[in-house]
């Protein structure tokens, strides 16, 4: 019986992850963006086009840094105003 229940636990876990919220952003949006990016990447590779993304990992880290800097700035504003 445990083997039959395992998929149900897995489905409940995935539904819980999808319904998570972080800083007002729904995880569903993040997962849909990831799936869309994967599909676009696959299509571009099959069409032998250059990927529409930075080719170097440091560029990706830079984009994350810009985003994280904005998050830190909003935290600082809330901290000093409240």
Class per helix and strand makeup: mainly alpha
Listing every helix as H and every strand as E from the N terminus to the C terminus, the arrangement reads HEEHH
Helix run count: 3
Shape assignment: flat
Sequence stretches where pLDDT stays below 50 over 5 or more residues: none
Task: Walk me through this protein's architecture.
This protein has 82 residues and is mainly alpha-helical. The protein folds into two domains: 1-51, no CATH class; 54-82. The protein has three helices and two strands, in the order αββαα. The chain has a two-stranded antiparallel sheet. The radius of gyration is 19 Å and the shape is flat.
Sequence-ordered SSE layout with sheet pairings:
Elements: H1 2-18, E1 21-22, E2 25-26, H2 27-46, H3 57-81
Antiparallel strand pairs: 1-2
Please provide a brief summary of the model.
The protein is mainly alpha-helical.
